[in-house]
Design goal:
single chain; alpha+beta; seven-stranded mixed β-sheet; 5 helices
Length: about 190
């Protein structure tokens, strides 16, 4: 490419512009267009690269997820915000009639009414809940059969006696037809003083 550029500059650029013929001007324009096209072409090597994964998922290919529906993310955040502010009735409206709930030592399908009862029980002894959101992502499988929203956040719960506890959450929330159909909740308690 650099030799081609030297040829162009040696041939055309040393000739005063007023002495160039119209056909030479067309050739220069054509060459400039070709150069712009060639420099604008992108060689995407990522599609050619094969990766040797140490582990692969058991039920799908390694590169399986794409950006998902942002309305699922909006609805997941609204459900969490309603719960955070004690609006249990509003929070459960974002859930399907039943959902698969998974957490530490829990893996069960529950009706929405049971979830509502759990939320109400939480608020019986709670003075306040504060959520500090770290990040979130909405994804969909390539075959469009699975939709998830993942939330990474810190929840600070203060009970009615004034004692506060902070917990880190990673929630994988499954969606179908705009409703929450599953929650897979991972938690980590912070060391004292954090």
């Amino acid at each position: 490419m650099k030799y081609f550029g030297k040829f162009i500059s040696a041939f055309y650029l040393h000739t005063p512009i007023h002495k160039l013929k119209l056909t030479n001007m067309k050739n220069i324009f054509l060459l400039i267009c070709i150069l712009l096209y060639l420099t604008g072409c992108k060689n995407d090597k990522a599609t050619d690269t094969k990766y040797d994964y140490a582990y692969t998922p058991i039920d799908h290919e390694p590169i399986y997820w794409e950006a998902g529906d942002q309305m699922n993310l909006v609805n997941a955040l609204k459900a969490l915000k309603a719960f955070e502010t004690g609006k249990v009735d509003e929070s459960v409206t974002y859930f399907a009639d039943s959902l698969q709930f998974t957490a530490d030592n829990i893996d069960m399908k529950i009706p929405r009414d049971t979830l509502k009862f759990w939320f109400q029980e939480t608020w019986k002894n709670t003075s306040s809940i504060k959520v500090e959101m770290n990040d979130y992502e909405s994804v969909v499988s390539k075959d469009k059969k699975k939709e998830y929203v993942t939330l990474w956040f810190k929840e600070i719960v203060t009970d009615k006696s004034g004692k506060a506890d902070s917990v880190a959450y990673v929630d994988d929330i499954g969606f179908k037809n705009g409703k929450i159909i599953s929650m897979d909740e991972k938690t980590r308690h912070y060391p004292k003083g954090q």
